[in-house]
Amino acid sequence: MGNIPFGFVLLLLGFFAGALVLTIVLFAIKQKRLQRLKDPHRDYYRNRG
To answer: How far, CA to CA in Å, does 48 sit from each of 16, 42, 44, 45?
Structure first.
């Protein structure tokens, strides 16, 4: 167990942190879209032109 290089551990932690941030961002975008669909006062899909 002592022969695992420290840089490799940092690389794995970096990948994990990146995946976690990406998951949180995608979840936030999904929640924002759901809230937009649930808003009864606005019609987001009607053309304003």
So the answer is: 43, 12, 9, 9
φ, ψ for residue 31 (rounded to 5)? -65, -40
Query: pLDDT, tens digit, for every residue of 1-49?
Result: 568 888 999 999 999 999 999 999 999 999 988 887 777 666 656 666 5
User: d(Cα 36, Cα 34) in Å, to the nearest integer?
Assistant: 5
DSSP string, the chain: -TTS-HHHHHHHHHHHHHHHHHHHHHHHHHHHHHHHHH-TT--TTS---
Q: Are 16 and 23 in contact (CB under 8 A)?
A: no
